[in-house]
Design a protein that fits this description.
heterodimer, A: 180 residues, mainly alpha, 0% strand, B: alpha/beta, CBS-domain, 4-stranded antiparallel β-sheet, 17 strands, globular, binds adenosine-5'-diphosphate, binds magnesium ion
Chain lengths: 180, 367
């Protein structure tokens, strides 16, 4: 989606605005919306609404960063690429995307880490998960249980972030990392 | 060959290029010069269809460009911009190989071509695997030129290619660019806002002001016969000195009056040879003809006996230096003659102060 809108500024404006608004909705409220939205299909609780909420929540930063990444490619790159006879598609795939990988990847990283924290609430709508420890712990005033849940979730977030950083480093073109 | 006929381009109400007609001959180097915003870049970009024009016609190699697919057209026209626009995620090799790859050349042929083209722009083969972020400004500009020339286009469009380079390196790039053009003889359109660069490089100069072509002529003709006050002002006060700069060191290179020796030869043996042949100057060259050092045998005077001087890093003049540059180097070095090298630093001969003075004399007699 980010790729698609990157060369269509009119559509992009709306998509980015909608994305930005959606990201300001508190995650708990989004669950609420999902539960209501899926209720008619008898899917109101459990896995389906929570996965949908997480998906929507994480797609937004990815789309936004991809869009911004592709548009921050320096104009002289595009000018040179056009000037030597690359087609629009070649410019997107051979120039814009490789040059945008660091920014796109950081969008994906933010999305995944956010997904982990948002997933915490999933237990509230009976989808289980690590969040269960926290909310069950709060309910029973059991500090140990809350701590175990919080620490596990943080560890998961940090671990995933670390792995994605490695992936980012691995797929970033070497020429963008060299030092003089 | 490029032919513009009554070409007009407007941006909104603003006329950027006004009814332009210009015939650019095959193999010639044409300079576009004029104040900022006068329409140089726009004209250049119309030739490879980066900017569409409103009226008139442009013909490249007998075909109206609007009949050619723009992407195809651009693959056959080299294009160099001031910002160069090397792709940082690709090596020098990959940058230069882009157009040959777009044209589906065989890998072997591409490899051979890149070796050849790096040699042409005097970059060591080891640069092939470097990334643009590892290069200096001048090296980047050489790679930019190599990329534009890689697929052997007949035409080269250059938009202020040396504009962002410091003055000293700019002079060097100009010298080696001229030597390259001497070798490849492309049809080149070169935009500049530096009148000295226009005079030094151009076969012909097109002077542009506010979208109008003011004068288009051989450089010497423009200097001797400016069309109007605008051109006179552009040329500045020192037109005669500038006219002098049309003469290049290469026109005055002498092949005698010195000897060359191998840089492995002992000083004694060099001294002996020089005395035998009664020659005052010897140059030591390595096996690649690169100038390494100089020997001078000074005249004996009544008070001093003859002195033999070894000079490990002599001043040098580039073939493409104009005689103003050669003259100032000689004055600075305090020498009556200096060795001349080409862009590959190969020794080609010497140039003498007395010959330059003769030329200056000729000029000052005329005016
Ligand atoms: N894309 C554009 N949109 C609007 N005006 C432009 C555009 N490109 C150039 N111009 C205008 O056209 C005139 C000529 O510009 P240009 O050819 O870039 O000048 P030069 O290269 O000689 O400095 C200028 O007045 C400039 O502002
Ligand atoms: Mg310009």
């Amino acid at each position: 989606m980010g790729f698609y809108i990157s060369s269509r500024p009119n559509i992009a404006k709306y998509v980015i605005n909608v994305a930005s608004i959606m990201m300001t909705i508190p995650s708990l409220a989004l669950y609420g919306v999902m539960v209501v939205a899926f209720a008619p299909f008898k899917l109101g609780l459990g896995i389906v609404p929570s996965v949908s909420a997480i998906t929507i929540y994480s797609l937004l930063p990815i789309t936004r960063n991809t869009y911004l990444a592709l548009n921050q490619v320096k104009p002289e790159m595009i000018e040179a690429a056009r000037g030597i006879g690359m087609s629009k598609n070649q410019i997107l795939w051979k120039i814009k995307i490789p040059l945008s990988i660091p920014v796109i990847m950081s969008g994906i990283r933010i999305a995944v880490v956010m997904g982990v924290s948002v997933a915490t609430y999933a237990s509230l709508i009976a989808a289980g998960g690590l969040g269960y420890f926290i909310f069950a712990g709060i309910g029973r005033a059991n500090l140990t249980m809350v701590l175990v849940g919080a620490i596990l979730i943080s560890a998961l977030g940090i671990g995933v972030n670390y792995i994605l950083l490695k992936v980012e480093d691995w797929i970033t073109p070497k020429g963008l990392k060299v030092k003089r | 060959m490029i032919e513009l006929t009554n070409v007009t381009k407007k941006f909104g109400n603003k006329i950027a290029v006004n009814n332009f007609s210009l015939h650019i001959e095959k193999g010639s180097l044409t300079m576009f010069i004029g104040p900022s915003g006068c329409g140089k870049t726009t004209t250049l970009r119309m030739i490879n269809r980066l900017t569409p024009f409103d009226k008139g016609n442009i013909i490249v190699n007998d075909t109206p460009i609007n009949d050619v697919n723009p992407v195809e057209l651009r693959r056959n026209i080299g294009y160099v911009i001031q910002e160069i626009g090397l792709f940082p995620h690709l090596t020098v090799f990959e940058n230069v190989a882009i157009v040959p790859r777009l044209l589906k050349w065989e890998q072997k042929k591409i490899e051979r071509r890149i070796e050849e083209i790096l040699e042409l722009v005097t970059l060591n083969q080891s640069f092939a695997q470097k990334y643009p972020l590892q290069l200096s400004g001048g090296e980047k500009q050489r790679v930019g030129l190599a990329r534009a020339l890689a697929a052997e286009p007949e035409i080269l469009l250059m938009d202020e290619p040396f504009g962002a380079i410091d003055p000293i390196n700019r002079l060097k790039l100009q010298d080696s660019f001229l030597e390259i053009q001497e070798e490849i003889k492309k049809t080149i359109v070169f935009v500049t806002h530096d009148i000295n660069e226009a005079i030094k490089l151009g076969d012909k100069i097109a002077i542009i002001n506010e979208g109008n072509l003011i004068q288009y002529d051989n450089v010497s003709k423009i200097l001797s016969d400016p069309a109007n006050e605008f051109v006179e002002n552009l040329l500045g006060q020192d037109r005669n000195i500038k006219a002098l700069s049309l003469k290049k060191a290469k026109d005055y290179v002498l092949k005698d009056g010195f000897i060359t020796v191998l840089d492995t030869e002992s000083r004694e043996s060099v001294e002996k040879k020089m005395k035998e042949k009664n020659i005052k100057i010897a140059f030591a060259l390595d096996e690649n003809n690169h100038l390494k050092s100089r020997f001078v045998l000074e005249k004996a005077t009544e008070t001093k006996k003859q002195k033999f001087i070894y000079n490990p890093a002599p001043w040098i003049i580039e073939r493409q230096n104009n005689i103003n540059e050669a003259l100032s180097k000689m004055l600075e070095a305090g020498e009556k003659q200096l060795p001349v090298v080409n862009r590959k630093k190969e020794f080609v001969g010497i140039i003498k102060l007395s010959n330059i003075f003769e030329e200056v004399n000729k000029k000052t007699n005329i005016s």
